[in-house]
Design brief:
The protein is α/β, with parallel strands linked by helices. It contains ten helices and ten strands. It has one domain: P-loop containing nucleotide triphosphate hydrolases (Rossmann fold, 3-Layer(aba) Sandwich). Helix 2 packs parallel to helix 5 and helix 4 runs antiparallel to helix 5. The longest helix has 16 residues. The radius of gyration is 18 Å and the shape is globular. The C terminus is likely disordered. The structure holds adenosine-5'-diphosphate. Adenosine-5'-diphosphate binds next to helix 1. Pfam families: ABC_tran. One of its GO terms (molecular function) is ATP binding.
Length: 251
């Protein structure tokens, strides 16, 4: 914790991780490393452990076996939350308080100013973040009045205002109208081009293979981890999803 991680160091490193909520592990033999600037999607059928893996990565769960680190620190002691922008599923945002887009984005500055007032510079950063996600014209709109895609952009702007260098998105296009999905992925791509690391949990395999550069295919264990093009040509998809096809059909 004394010296910050070098850019070349992995942002995320999992080594032989195993975890179960009860005695039976729901993820096991997980070793992976994600470097700054990557654009990675975690795919897998329902119940394959995607959310559990994300929680292990973010330090919200501790491995039963093995180790997890974030920005070079054990994940469970990492507490510089501003470095991570988390965008939850649209559905879970419906209970959000009726605050405006600008207020949401200003929250991104809070870790940087403590309980103090936002300075002119902070407000400028907020305005820039709104512009980057194309939401300047909606700054005074209440979040509850936004479309799904606009709402996700507002939460991305909050992360940008916080100067996050890792953006974690959990099925971000659930509830987003089809016409807005492509533009949403274009935004992620441009953020990635600027060096922001993107980690995506996604159910929509088409969207993932079109946009992510690296795929981690999970079904309790890692079935595939590599470039997206190799994944498309591999049989990992059939192997990982095959046994769970009935589970997917049921939900
Ligand atoms: P995914 O995100 O791929 O759908 P999850 O990580 O949510 O998968 O779940 C993996 C497995 O762990 C599933 O069998 C699920 O029922 C179980 N599980 C998830 N969360 C809990 C929990 N809080 N307590 C007990 N079991 C859980």
């Amino acid at each position: 914790a004394e010296s910050p991680a070098e850019p070349a160091d992995p942002l995320i490193e999992l080594s032989d991780v195993e975890f179960g909520y009860t005695a039976a592990p729901v993820v096991e033999n997980i070793s992976l490393s994600i470097a700054q600037g990557e654009y990675v999607a975690i795919v897998g059928p329902n119940g394959s452990g995607k959310s559990t893996l994300m929680k292990l990565i973010l330090g919200l769960l501790r491995p039963d076996e093995g180790s997890a680190s974030l920005f070079g620190e054990p994940s469970h002691t990492f507490d510089d939350g501003a470095r991570i922008g988390y965008v939850a599923q649209h559905a879970s945002a419906s209970k959000e308080m009726p605050i405006t887009v600008r207020e949401v984005v200003k929250m991104g500055r809070f870790p940087h100013v403590g309980f103090g007032m936002l300075s002119a510079d902070d407000h400028e950063i907020v305005d820039e973040a709104l512009a980057t996600v194309g939401m300047s014209d909606f700054a005074n709109r209440r979040v509850t009045q936004l479309s799904g895609g606009q709402r996700q952009r507002a939460f991305i702007a909050r992360a940008l205002a916080g100067e996050a260098d890792l953006l974690v998105l959990d099925e971000p296009t659930v509830g987003v109208d089809a016409e807005s999905v492509d533009a949403f992925y274009d935004l992620l791509e441009s953020l990635n081009d600027e060096g922001i690391t993107i980690l995506l949990i996604e159910h929509d395999l088409g969207a993932v293979t079109d946009h992510a550069k690296r795929i981690i295919c999970l079904n309790r264990e890692v079935y595939f981890d590599g470039p997206t093009d190799d994944f498309v040509e591999s049989d990992a998809l059939a192997r990982a999803f095959g046994t769970a096809a009935t589970v997917m059909g049921e939900t």
